[in-house]
User: Fold this.
Amino acid sequence: MDPTLISALAALVGALIGGMASLGSSWLTQWIQLSARNQERDQVRREALYTGFIAEASRLYGDALSHEKDGVLDMVQLYAMVARMRLISSAAVVTAAERTLDAVIDAYLSPNKSLRDLRLLMAEGRMNFLVDFSQAGRAELDR
Assistant:
């Protein structure tokens, strides 16, 4: 074989390998950046959902302490948030959200509370109905 042909083929193969390596490196870099953006977007969505859930659960719990209701209309938004969590959150977060939902329902079904009753509930630590959810949500957001 002609030595100039071998040199030309070696240069061509070297350029081809270099181009493939460059293409692979660029693709990998873009994929990693896209993955990081998607993870950040998902975390922002989860954080907004958890914040909204805490606000709505707190509002309903406060309402439940002074009102007895059998209607479910006020609970629909909270149920919808738990359903959204089932799509994007871990089982630990969903379980904690369901326990929070149960606490709100139990508060609606129990007799109305006075300020004196609230002070007693706070002293007993029974007003911390969001602690498990907050801890599970924080653990998931910190991952």
Notes: The two ends are 60 Å apart (CA to CA).
